[in-house]
Automatic annotation (TrEMBL):
<keyword id="KW-0813">Transport</keyword>
<dbReference type="InterPro" id="IPR017871">
    <property type="entry name" value="ABC_transporter-like_CS"/>
</dbReference>
<keyword id="KW-0547">Nucleotide-binding</keyword>
<dbReference type="InterPro" id="IPR003593">
    <property type="entry name" value="AAA+_ATPase"/>
</dbReference>
<dbReference type="InterPro" id="IPR003439">
    <property type="entry name" value="ABC_transporter-like_ATP-bd"/>
</dbReference>
<keyword id="KW-0067">ATP-binding</keyword>
<dbReference type="GO" id="GO:0005524">
    <property type="term" value="F:ATP binding"/>
</dbReference>
<dbReference type="InterPro" id="IPR050166">
    <property type="entry name" value="ABC_transporter_ATP-bind"/>
</dbReference>
<feature type="domain" description="ABC transporter">
    <location>
        <begin position="10"/>
        <end position="245"/>
    </location>
</feature>
<dbReference type="InterPro" id="IPR027417">
    <property type="entry name" value="P-loop_NTPase"/>
</dbReference>
<dbReference type="GO" id="GO:0016887">
    <property type="term" value="F:ATP hydrolysis activity"/>
</dbReference>
<dbReference type="Pfam" id="PF00005">
    <property type="entry name" value="ABC_tran"/>
</dbReference>
<protein>
    <submittedName>
        <fullName>Nitrate ABC transporter ATP-binding protein</fullName>
    </submittedName>
</protein>
Amino acid sequence: MTLLAKQNAIHIEQLRKSYSEPSVGDVHYIIKDVDLVIKGGEFFILLGPSGCGKSTLLNMIAGFVSKSGGNLRVNDVEVNKPGRDRAVVFQQADSSLFPWLTVRQNVEFGLRMKKTPKEEQRLISDRYIRLVGLTGHEEKFPKELSGGMKQRVQLARVLANDPAILLMDEPFGALDAMTRRTMQKELVNIWRETHKTVIFVTHDIQEALLLGERIGIMSVGPSSNITDIYDNSLSYPRDVASQQFYNLYNTIQGHFEE
């Protein structure tokens, strides 16, 4: 593994998350015995049906949810709480943006909390507002933005804080098809420019194939785990009409039909 791949790598071994049934004392597993290594700088997809534990696993990596057993390390440090090296982009931007702040103020919020000099705040916010395609909208408030634009603000704010790892929980699931495709392309461009580690949760096979370098398939819950990992070596930007895309789509679709 190269130095770049070792930095910000995630190592998961026999990871479990359970809850107890108080009336009978039984232990029920949401996820059980998950083994996974994600290289630094990799775009990794967690793909599976709704309710299979994808978001639970993502939140465990974020440090929001504690593990019931196993090991979970980022940069060889065991995860037991949230950290600045990891940031989550949620499906609903409305719940994470401050409605009383403008686009620029939202993007600069974390920088202000870190007491970053104002001149530097402006340079950083300018960069990421440009990167997500919101130049010219800096002084608008969230209520004046479309759903796709709000997601761009959320992404710009996360990137402005410069986390090494982006954890994305179906961030485009609530968008219309055309906006979703645009955001997918933007995300790939941002990832290729910033070289961050990205873990992206989805239940959409096409989205997984458009974005990810590797795709981890999660089984139906309860006691879900990662059953298969598919390598996706298609070159970017990916063509959904290509024969290679079609073949890989059918392979993964067949996995779910089984």
